[in-house]
Amino acid sequence: MKRSSGSEPVPHADGRLRRLAPAILMCLILGALGGLLAATVYHPSTVRASFTPPREPARDFRLHDQDGRSITVGQARGHVVILTFLYSTCRDLCPAQAADIVQAVGKLGPLAGRVLVYGVSVDPVGDTPARARAFLKKYGVYGGPVHFLVGSRAALRPVWRAYGIVPINATPQEARDAAVAYDRLQSGGVKSRPYLPPERSAPPAAQEPFPDATDLRYRGRARHHAGVDFEHSAYVMLIDKRGIQRVGIPFEQLTPDSLAADLKRLLTQR
């Protein structure tokens, strides 16, 4: 398997705990995916699993959204943030995840105005501002509190590292070709299908009991039909009104009802 570009040294941070935070977070995510979900991935309604990230301020960043606006975590204080990672030309997992989030926010009633959604790109080549806008328009949330955050690999890499994210591992040319193929399908009116996991084995590293958290190659179960080079980390992080990271929810355990319940708890806390 090709090496992911996420294997560069961890950026400087103050204090040993902060230097270790991405590795700790990655271990929690991998543990949730490899252990808690093993018996429930195809029956997500039976058990609700989540993980607790380090209880500390969410790592701030500055990226631009689909309309060129500068977006930071810090400016969201007073709102609950749904932070997730996706790419605009995904045909299966990302649309399913986006639909769950949109439905959950729709269940909040008046509280919905105090929620922001930040979707960070894992495909700096395919995720152009135009494709990000088209993705949001497809789900009827363009112009609302949903920001699709895009940028160059250099701009996105520190965010991936801070939140333990493995981006897609496709080469720039592979990503470009896949995005163009997606555009052709969309222009032909192809509709998204209900999400079903692909029938493909996870790589051998997924069976390691103690994975190397600094080795940011995708090692989880198969999630994307496009192939192993288009696999990426897929979870939702909830950041509370004070900017503290509170709850992590792997994709397999994400449902509109459970997400709405988590959001209501954070929105009503003082």
Would you kindly provide a written description of the structure presented here, covering whatever features stand out?
With 270 residues, this protein is an alpha/beta fold. It has a single domain, classed as Glutaredoxin, CATH 3.40.30.10. Helices cover 31% and strands 13% of the residues. The strands form 2 sheets. The chain has a 5-stranded mixed beta sheet. A two-stranded antiparallel ribbon has the order 1-2. Helix 2 (93-106) crosses helix 6 (256-268). The termini are far apart. The model is unreliable at 1-46 (pLDDT under 50).
Q: What is the mean pLDDT? A: 83
The number of helical elements comes to 6
Distance N terminus to C terminus?
Answer: 47 Å
Could you tell me the number of beta strands? 7
Kindly report the CATH topology: Glutaredoxin
Radius of gyration: 17 Å
Strand content: 5-15%
Low-confidence stretches: 1-46
Q: Supply the CATH class.
A: Alpha Beta
> Looking across the biggest beta sheet, what order are the strands in?
5-4-3-6-7
Q: Please name the CATH architecture.
A: 3-Layer(aba) Sandwich
Helix content: 25-40%
The geometry reads as globular
- The CATH homologous superfamily name equals Glutaredoxin
Classify the secondary structure makeup into a structural class: alpha/beta
In short:
Helices cover 31% and strands 13% of the residues. With 270 residues, it is α/β, with parallel strands linked by helices. The chain has one domain: Glutaredoxin, CATH 3.40.30.
